[in-house]
């Protein structure tokens, strides 16, 4: 990543989400109240902790993620964008999209596959340093010159500057596990999407294949922090990221939360990449919503 500083105006900020009462751990709950999501920090501290983590790792985030995924990260994101089936002329809200990997692939797809030059992406991320990296990456592109990409610092759980029923599509890639209340982010996605709009989420999953699953869990707990320490000189931040990933609910449980928000989620509700190392959820807001 170049050290050249990008001169950009201050990012618009959304007001912070309301803080829940202190709790021992964040929880994604079923209608019956079963706790699905537990983490190792108090619920009211997670947002601040994760913001601190991403301030430290922003400049090397994509390169470290590429190495730790054996460069499958880029493949997964390309598959994800293709699975979203972008529609010409639509408005995409890309949440937790700071480094613009999804925005870049989405607009490339629109340009090269759909022959479309009117679709737009609004990138929202809670971390200013991740957004800085994304702005720098796209600074010299025609997309910026044509105002097809815009940026805002904001909270996925409280998208106060996004109007109801205003977006054609919503994407979030490897961002849900960072949130104190993932279910609130899903509800916000439902609110801002137009009827018929598409919700697309790419998230780390649970590998249920017995031996492979044990290997992956060992890798997350041991090798990911080691790689982060080696490449980014910041083992503690990658230990925190690994714990955040490992504490996220099973794909069967998270798909239930998406349905409870009101989305139509076909079939079993998710698709697995590499036996569940990554999971894709593609849902639709009903036309009569």
TrEMBL record:
Membrane topology: Peripheral membrane protein
Pathway: Cofactor biosynthesis; ubiquinone biosynthesis
Coiled coil spans: none
Pfam families: Ubie_methyltran
Superkingdom as given in the UniProt entry: Eukaryota
Region span, Disordered: 1-27
Annotated Gene Ontology cellular component terms: extrinsic component of mitochondrial inner membrane
Catalytic activity: a 2-methoxy-6-(all-trans-polyprenyl)benzene-1,4-diol + S-adenosyl-L-methionine = a 5-methoxy-2-methyl-3-(all-trans-polyprenyl)benzene-1,4-diol + S-adenosyl-L-homocysteine + H(+)
Principal localisation: mitochondrion
Role noted for this protein: Methyltransferase required for the conversion of 2-polyprenyl-6-methoxy-1,4-benzoquinol (DDMQH2) to 2-polyprenyl-3-methyl-6-methoxy-1,4-benzoquinol (DMQH2).
Family indicated by similarity: Belongs to the class I-like SAM-binding methyltransferase superfamily. MenG/UbiE family.
Name by which UniProt lists this protein: 2-methoxy-6-polyprenyl-1,4-benzoquinol methylase, mitochondrial
Species of provenance: Coemansia guatemalensis
Gene assigned in the entry: COQ5_1
